[in-house]
Amino acid sequence: MRWVVLGVLSLVVMGVAVVVGPAPIPVSDVWAALLGRGDTVIVGIVRDLRVTRVLLAFLVGGSLAVTGAALQALVRNPLADPYLLGLSGGAGLGAVAAVSLGIGGAWGVPAAAFAGALLAIVVVYRLALAAGHVMDPRVLLLGGVVVGAFAASVMGAFIALSPAAEVRSAMVWLLGGFSGASWLTLTVFGGYAAAPLAFLVGVSRPLDLLTLGEEPATMLGADVERLKRALYVAASLLTAAAVAVAGIIGFVGLVVPHGIRMVWGHGHRQLIPAAFVVGGTLLVVADLIARTAFAPLEMPVGVVTAVIGVPVFVVLIRRWRD
Amino acid sequence: MAGLIVSAQDVGYAYPRAPRDAVTDVSLEVRAGAVTILVGPNGCGKTTLLRLMLGVLRPDRGSVVLDGRPAHEWARRAFAQTVGVVTQREEPAFPMRVRDAVMHGRYARMGALAAPRRQDEDAVGQALARCDVDHLEDRWVDTLSGGEWQRVRIARALAQEPSILVLDEPTASLDVRHEMDVFELTVSLVRERGLGAVVVTHQVNLAARFADVLAVMHEGRLRAVGTPSDVLTSELVDAVFAWPMRIEHWRGIPQLMPLRKDEQA
Amino acid sequence: MIRRVLVCASLLVACAGEPRPAAGLDDSGRPLPVGVQARRIVSLSPATTELLFTLGVGSRVVGRTRYDRDPEAALAVPSVGDGLQPNVEVVLAQRPDLVVFYHAAANTPAMARIERAGVPIVALRLDGLDDLVRGTRLLGVLLGVETRADSLVRDLEARLAALASPAGGGGAALLVWTDPPIVIGRSSFLSEIIERAGWANVFGDIQQPSSTVSIEVVAARRPDVLIGGASVLETIRSRAEWAVVDAVREHRLVALEGSAFTHPSYRAPEAIAEVRARLAAVPR
Q1: A-chain residues within 8 Å CB-CB of C182?
Q2: Cis before residue B19, ω within 30 degrees of 0?
């Protein structure tokens, strides 16, 4: 029943997001355009721009939320999120570096972003363990923020030093947004994200065990070391794919799993798929706000997610201290 | 699965960059149907020996064999079907209900995504009932008392349907009533199901009361293995515990009484 | 570039409706440093640098920004780096006796520091042709080349008047970037060129010099022509999603390159004529 409600809700939201946009188009025209009838510009706007954009926002939001949920199990802390742990920053830096150095292309930029994200999570994780064998969540968050700030600074350096054209490309990764949505970016994203998403759904039960601690998880039958390595890779791949097509979008990975945990509990067999659907829906809404609130001007979608996410983060921090 | 289950032969292990061996030349056999209790002072190598026996560490020398295969070569999933462990530390990061916690014991026997089957539900139900925590099944684990939480974790190990039960310091922060409760439960499980059990503890006197086999470790070596009466000699007690003790007997079982300074003359 | 766009955008609120200063004052309201016989001038914007050369005092220019590349003779002048938040030390190292700033809030601290160093400054904001005329007169007075300034202004006004026949052009979208799509709004010089060429900027309702929009909005505004730099147009042609825009699908694209379109200068009449001809040549 819950799944039906969730599914219907997400479909309705996506439908609204296809109907509503900065260019006012009557619903009947949108429907005709979906079927390929009517004015070519309107058909193009609806089918090639809005549908791709809504789908991409949904997939990226879902992936970020799933990544957040998986990272929370990995570090055993509800405050984890690809943005806060520095993965997004690392991925952005990888992407900006690849573009500035003229390497990449549609499929290469996510690969460079993946390298950056993987490096960031390994550094952050090692930092958190540096103080002892037991991971200190405070050091972990601090490490993530430091690595994220470092990545942002180096991106700033690329922007300051590169010729104008590369500079402007780099901005999209700093601000985040779906203006680049197309059938090609959808394909690229799907190509990078499908395997790690399937993997994370498949390890739902080992993730449950991991939240008990590494030793109990091992004794209950999880191969913890292999699982952790695979989680690094899957989280980095998903973050990299998201950042490469949509830039750095924060807080989705934090807010969405948190909401589901409150309503639906902590079992990953429900949490992971629900996070995907809710995260996707949330980002479709955020993008809808970003592109229509000040139409015809567009604001970065990361601004909208931050407005939603920061208060939730504050609440989480307070609760965590108790 | 009668008889020998875990066998450690001349096992030696040193942690990376450590100057000395943590465990030296230890040979120990764990048999089905018997309670083996490992005691010794802090830092004597108990935990290291346990981690070697659980396949978490790989011995530098000698071998640890479980059911015919070196312990560290076992896949963790298969291992968890054979050995149920109540670890010393466990702090769930997220709240969960007792029944879900015990269901985690079925992980090694379930499909990756499938919902729990009838046999899983049955195993969990029986484990909850056997450990007398079935009335707690809808409680959140973070609301349980220490004793209840240990019994839930024993129920979870039982839900694994193991041949061996391992408990690492299971009574460390429990009061007497719950401490006795945990030991009684462990022993009765061994008696009624023919399991092997390994318990690591500081409580020498309780160990002597409940052990079929008592193993005493000191400075990385196994000083004595046998029945409590054979093992707890005054010579061994003086050498191992570094504190003057008087050995009393209760129904033929040795019990140690640490002496105060003015009682030592 | 982006930073400049952002700074300009943030300034706009403060600058929009601000009355132009009275005679004897520069755009920041400072009194002109009359009586200074400027022999060593550092000019910190492309428009002022080119203007100084056009006024015939290029030989007195001893510093420019790295973006000031007109006229060609200006390239021989040492660059002092950026014109927004310039490096004060590098500017002073040229031992200037006059520094011509681009008037922007971001430059207020640098202006104060140069003044404290005892060097007179003038702050000018030359964003359009009216600004250019005002700046020409002002610098003409200040540098003792009033006659030259007057004849330049008269000539410009005559040439602009000759061009002023509304050609009944269509609407154009001016695109400066694709990721994300950034279009030029009303307060940009290129927008003025388009309008003087008899065409309309379809994003004339955007007050800022430039702004991020979505492809959808570009498509929905149905520009008759899409104008951009060569590399931007190349990107647009290579991306399937841009085909949604009529002008792209039907190859109504016009590449404009060159500084005559980016800052006001006395080359503007030719630029306007070129745009008018190029736009008229696009099949509609």
Answers
A1: 168
A2: no
Tokens of B62: 């000698």
Instruction: Find, among B92, B123, B95, B94, the residue nearest to B107 by Cα.
Output: B123
- With vertex at residue C173, the alpha carbon angle to CA C171 and CA C178, rounded to the nearest 5 degrees, is 165
Q: pTM of this prediction?
A: 0.86
**Shortest distance, CA C179 to any CA of chain A (angstroms):** 6
CB-based contact C244 A45, cutoff 8 Å: yes
Question: Cα–Cα distance between C71 and C43 in angstroms, integer?
Answer: 13
User: How far is residue B249's CA from residue B257's CA, in Å, rounded to a whole number?
Assistant: 10
The whole-angstrom separation of Cα B167 and Cα B90 is 13
Q: Identify the bridge partners of residue B246 per DSSP, sorted by sequence position.
A: B257
ipTM of the complex: 0.92
Does residue C241 contact residue A181 with C-beta atoms inside 8 Å? yes
| Cα A40 versus chain centre, distance | 33
Instruction: Give me the torsion for CA of B252, B256, B257, B260, rounded to 10°.
Output: 150
β-bridge mates for residue B64, sequence order: B8
Which residue in the set A49, A172, A177 is minimally distant from C241, CB to CB?
Answer: A49
* Residues contacting residue C248 through CB under 8 Å, at least 6 positions apart: C226, C236, C237, C242
CA A247 to CA A229: how far, in whole Å?
25
For B101-117, b/e burial (b = at least 16 CB within 10 A) is bbbbbbbbbbeeeeeee
* Residue A14 burial (C-beta neighbours within 10 Å; 0-12, 13-18, 19+): buried
Strand ranges, E, within chain B: 4-13, 23-31, 35-39, 61-66, 69-70, 83-86, 164-168, 196-200, 213-218, 221-226, 245-250, 253-258
Of C249, C213, C172, give the one whose Cα is nearest residue A40: C249
With tokens 């952790």, the residue in question is A228
Per-residue pLDDT of chain C (284 residues; tens, 9 = 90+): 333 443 333 333 334 334 455 567 888 889 888 877 889 999 999 999 999 999 999 999 999 999 999 899 999 999 998 898 899 999 999 999 999 999 998 899 999 999 999 999 999 999 999 999 999 999 999 999 999 999 999 999 999 998 876 667 889 999 988 888 899 999 899 999 999 999 999 999 988 888 889 899 999 999 999 999 998 999 899 888 899 999 999 999 999 988 899 999 999 999 999 999 999 888 87
Distance from B98 to chain A by nearest Cα, in Å? 13
Chain B contact set for A204 (CB, 8 A): 112-113
Do the Cβ atoms of A177 and C240 come within 8 Å?
Answer: no
> C259 with C70: CB under 8 angstroms?
yes
A127: Cα separation from own chain's centroid: 23
Yes or no: say if A87 and A250 are a contact pair by the CB < 8 Å rule: no
Helix ranges (H only) for A131-163 are 137-161
Give the H/E segment covering residue B56.
none
Burial of A102 (0-12, 13-18, 19+ CB in 10 A): exposed
Chains interfacing with B (3 or more CB pairs < 8 Å): A
Which of A48, A167, A171 lies at the smallest CB-CB distance from C244?
A48
What tokens were used for B194?
Answer: 């023919």
Using a 10 angstrom Cβ sphere, with 0-12 exposed, 13-18 middle and 19 or more buried, the burial of residue B2 is exposed
Which two tokens mark C280? 């008229």
Tell me the C-alpha distance between B215 and B204, whole Å.
Answer: 10
Cα dist. B100→A222, A228, B79, B131, B147 in Å? Answer: 17, 23, 21, 15, 18
Coil, strand or helix: which one is C188? coil
Q: Chain C residues with CB inside 8 Å of A50's CB?
A: 216
Peptide bond connecting A82 to the previous residue in cis, omega within 30 degrees of 0: no
Chain B stretch 136-165, residues whose beta carbon is closer than 8 A to a beta carbon of chain A = 156, 160
Position of tokens 């040229």? C94
The C-alpha of A19 sits at a distance from chain B's nearest C-alpha, in angstroms, of 37
A263 - beta bridge partners? Answer: none
